[in-house]
Design a protein that fits this description.
Oligomer: single chain
Radius of gyration: 20 Å
Helix content: 40-55%
Number of helices: 7
Strand order of the largest sheet: 1-2
Largest sheet: 2 strands, antiparallel
Order of helices and strands: HHEEHEEHHHH
Low-confidence stretches: none
Number of domains: 1
Mean pLDDT: 77
Structural class: mainly alpha
C-alpha cells in the first residue's frame, strides 16, 4: 500500500487547479484537449481496477418488471464500465457503469449497466434482506459494494497521477 500525506497533496492539488483554471480560461482548443486527455487517463486507472474487482455472475439473469423481461448477460457489468463527458463544454469526465436510461448514452444492450445500483447496494424500497433467503442462497452477493471498495483502493494512485499530469499540462500551457 502506498502511503501519502493527504493534506499536502490536497493543498498541492488545489494550488494546481487554481492555476489550471486561470490557464484554461485563456486556453485554445488544443490545450483544452490535453486536459481532457489527462482526465481520461486518470479515469482509466479506476476502470481497470473496477474491472478486476468485479466477478461475473454464474449465470444469465432476467429481471421482470411491469410485464417486460430485461435480460442481464454474464459479464455485462464489466462491459458497461467506461469514461464519458457529461458536458461537452468542459474537460471533466465521469467514470463508472454506463447506462442508456438516466444519461441517454448510446450503449449497446450487452454493455448497458442500468442495474449497477442493485449490485452496489440493495435498494431501500426492498427493505432489509430476509435471513431465510440469505441462508438458501448458493452464493453470497459477491459484488456488493464493489465500486466503493475500488474507489478506496485507487484514490491515492489517481491523485498521484493527477498531480503529475496537471504539472505536465501546466508546463505545456505556460509555454
Amino acid at each position: 500500500m502506498i502511503e501519502f500525506d493527504q493534506k499536502r497533496m490536497d493543498k498541492e492539488l488545489l494550488r494546481l487547479r487554481k492555476k489550471l483554471g486561470r490557464v484554461e480560461r485563456d486556453m485554445d482548443g488544443a490545450k483544452s484537449k490535453e486536459m481532457l486527455k489527462s482526465h481520461k487517463e486518470i479515469g482509466k486507472i479506476y476502470v481497470k481496477q473496477a474491472k478486476s474487482n468485479i466477478k461475473n455472475y454464474h449465470e444469465d439473469t432476467v429481471v421482470k418488471k411491469k410485464g417486460k423481461e430485461y435480460p442481464i448477460v454474464r459479464g455485462q457489468l464489466k462491459k458497461s464500465l467506461g469514461i464519458w463527458r457529461p458536458n461537452s463544454r468542459r474537460t471533466g469526465v465521469v467514470v463508472g457503469p454506463r447506462a442508456n436510461a438516466p444519461m441517454r448514452k448510446k450503449v449497446r444492450p450487452q454493455a448497458d449497466g442500468w442495474f449497477a445500483h442493485f449490485v452496489e447496494e440493495r435498494p431501500k424500497k426492498f427493505g432489509p434482506p430476509d435471513p431465510d433467503t440469505l441462508a438458501k442462497r448458493k452464493r453470497p452477493p459477491q459484488n456488493r459494494g464493489v465500486f466503493n471498495r475500488t474507489k478506496q483502493q485507487v484514490v491515492g494512485k489517481m491523485r498521484n497521477k493527477q498531480l503529475d499530469l496537471y504539472r505536465k499540462t501546466l508546463k505545456k500551457a505556460i509555454r
